Every structure is written in structure tokens, then in C-alpha cells.
From TrEMBL:
This is DUF3575 domain-containing protein. It comes from the Bacteria.
Amino acid sequence: MKALFFILLITVTAFPVLSQERVQMHFNKNEIRLNILYLPAGYPELTYERVLGGKSAIGISIGGFIGSKKPNYAKDILTSDFSLFPFYRYYLGKRTNSGFFVENNVNLFYRDDHSDENKFGSGLGLALGTKFFAVNSWTMEVVVGGGLNFRQQSCEGSYYCFPDMFPRLGISLGKRF
């Protein structure tokens, strides 16, 4: 009788454990950001990022000069009039897509070199950065890096040539949704 009672007790207590459903964590997988570093110089850069998993994401940044005729600090740093940055990131933080990250990117760009030659170029680069979260899915990100420009030409003192390297810099504010 004791053995039957013991088997019945184990069966009754184990039954709810077997009927439990897996709990899936739901989090926002999309993020849009604005790079505020270049914004005062007339070079807005918008970024869209999609979370692939807990540690990786892909995205694209689009930026370009709009209505900026006078020289400014951004023209001294940036090597293109318009750029498109597809990227892949691997995050090393404990939270989902946060903390320190390593980025691999491709730069597709346009630069008016005041000639009749092809004005488009591309390059491959790396960047390092960190992402912080605030309340209500707001984010802040800092990224620093650069890459090798595949379209190289001799400058010979000209401002309008294509430099050997391109920068990947940013201080961005964004929102996850």
C-alpha cells in the first residue's frame, strides 16, 4: 500500500512538469538609429539593424551630404558624398545584442571628384563599438573603425581624389521596436 501511494504521489507531482510549455523570450528585433556625430555638419546617417539571434545582427547605414556647400569638419573626415554601409555584427555582451561588438562592413560610396571618370567606389572594413540600453527600448551606440578603399588613385595634392582608407565613426541614438 505504501509503495502504491508513493508511485501515485510521484506520478501526480511529475505530471504538471511534463505538461509545461516552453517559454520563449520575446524581444524587439528591429532598431533604427541616427548618427548625431555628423548631423550638425549636414551629413545625416540613418541605420537600420535587424537582430538575428542573441549575439548577432545585420544592418545597413545610409548617409550623405545634403545642401552643404561650405567646407566643414565632416568633409575633412569623410571620404564620400554619399555612402551605403551594409554590416554584420557580433555582440559580446550578456544581454541580447548589447555591450561590446565587432563589426564587419562594406562601404559602397559616391564621391564627386569633378572629373568625367567613374565616381563610385567600394571598400571592406572593420569596426569596434559598444551599445547601451536605456528605458523604453532607447539605445545609444558608439562605433569606431575604418576600412580599405578598393578604388585607389594617386592624389597628387588634389582634394577630390579617392583616399586609400575610409572611416567608420559614429555616436548614434536609436529606438528598438
